[in-house]
Q: What sequence folds into this?
């Protein structure tokens, strides 16, 4: 299968986004005035444990499957070459997986923040 330079660049861009998304953290800014620092660190560690329940791999696989199907259909309908379907599916799969990874990273950050709010902290971001 021959992959075009444009397709290669799109896939590389999506992989870069995946890498950046995996580097995102659940950085939390909390008003620490009047709080016990040791208790806060304990609560933060416990809240970060909850985020591990987010099934990132499963979500990425679903996103890749949907993206591949949509990308393949787009490639098949608009393509002039026999490789357009495969290229469309490849780009769609990477895009779908990237999208789900970003969604999962954001969800993990929300979980930590909501947990801390539930424990009485004033989350500022």
A:
């Amino acid at each position: 299968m021959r992959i075009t330079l444009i397709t290669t660049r799109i896939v590389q861009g999506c992989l870069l986004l995946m890498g950046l998304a995996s580097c995102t953290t659940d950085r939390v800014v909390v008003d620490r005035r009047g709080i016990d620092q040791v208790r806060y660190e304990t609560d933060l560690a416990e809240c970060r444990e909850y985020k591990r329940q987010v099934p990132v791999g499963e979500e990425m696989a679903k996103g890749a499957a949907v993206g591949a199907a949509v990308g393949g259909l787009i490639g098949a309908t608009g393509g002039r070459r026999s490789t357009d379907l495969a290229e469309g599916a490849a780009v769609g799969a990477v895009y779908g997986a990237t999208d789900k990874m970003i969604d999962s990273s954001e969800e993990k950050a929300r979980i930590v923040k909501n947990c801390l709010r539930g424990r009485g902290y004033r989350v500022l971001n």
